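tool_call predict_complex ligand=acetyl coenzyme *A
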Amino acid sequence: MSSRHEATGQPTSRSASPIYSRIAGTGSYLPPKRWSNEDLVAWLADRGVQTSHEWIVERTGIEARHFADPDVTASELGLQAAIRAIEAANCSAADIDLIICATSTPDMVFPSTACLVQKKLGVHGCPAFDVQAVCSGFVYAMTVADAMIRAGSVKRALVIGSEVFSRILDFKDRTTCVLFGDGAGAVVLQASDEPGIVASRLHADGQYADILCTPGTVKGGEILGDPTLKMDGQAVFKLAVNVLDQVAHEVLDEAGRTPDSIDWLVPHQANIRIMQGTARKLRLPNSRVVTTVDQHGNTSAASIPLALDHAVRSGLIQRGQSLLLEGVGGGFTWGAVLVDY
Ligand code: ACO
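tool_result ok
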């Protein structure tokens, strides 16, 4: 048995377990419609909302994002990413024995988006469920899948992050609607004798629920409350940089490693200033930070697997390298996964 962290109950050591999980393949998918800042600025101006390419780039690093067509759902984007990850892992959908989808923009209240992806993949019987941890959702989902693989109940897990955040944006609120985009990413995690996932750690603190939320819900067939995203940007900024630094050190300490051992930081793509602030605290050069926020915007739970897949397919990330995946988001939630790729 591996030992357990007193406060979180999470494993603090992997050394006693003979089973690990490794990333066997990655995939991603962006809806085809790309909106440059100029496109969005002009569209918003027609609706009386003033912003500029210069403001968006300077404060966020975002130059473009993709928006899904109105009839395209998170399960559809997730399916496309999953197909690519399964192909990259050299297996078939029938070989998958767990599906976890991280999303805050599910197709429907239930069934889960993971079950809908399972149906679209044409497979039957394996467990499938969603994880809702907003922008930390992918590291949460990876950690759960890793735990199930290490427990021996699962051999091959499909872990998806998929979002259609455009559905919950208030396009009259210029402080939030310029930040987000739609997309999906996925990995196939496979049981292995060697790590793989070396260490992971998750956290949440519900006292910060109000600084980043979409407070609406459904009641009696009507929407109750505001179903669009609300954010206190400066509060999120300060908290994000601090907790990302803390959790990075927690997983590095657990693995007995130092920040300079990280080949690639693959952070949640919220905002270039948060990403570079995190790298600075870890004394990592920006050249070791996988950056896609400029072209994708913030795709919440999809941003880490999207960035990971782009870096793998472009040849930046190579087998044998050490990756630190870090997420932070509404809840407030945060977490990190240290991976030997
Ligand atoms: N275009 C032009 N002007 C704008 C825009 C815009 N899109 N949005 C806000 N402004 C204006 C404001 O009206 C304000 O004007 P004023 O000074 O005349 O009143 C000015 O810019 C500054 O507004 P702030 O809200 O204080 O802007 P700030 O410098 O804090 O930047 C931002 C906002 C980019 C959201 C910043 O707070 C931030 O980076 N926060 C981090 C949060 C984040 O990235 N969230 C992503 C989602 S959360 C997650 O993924 C973890």
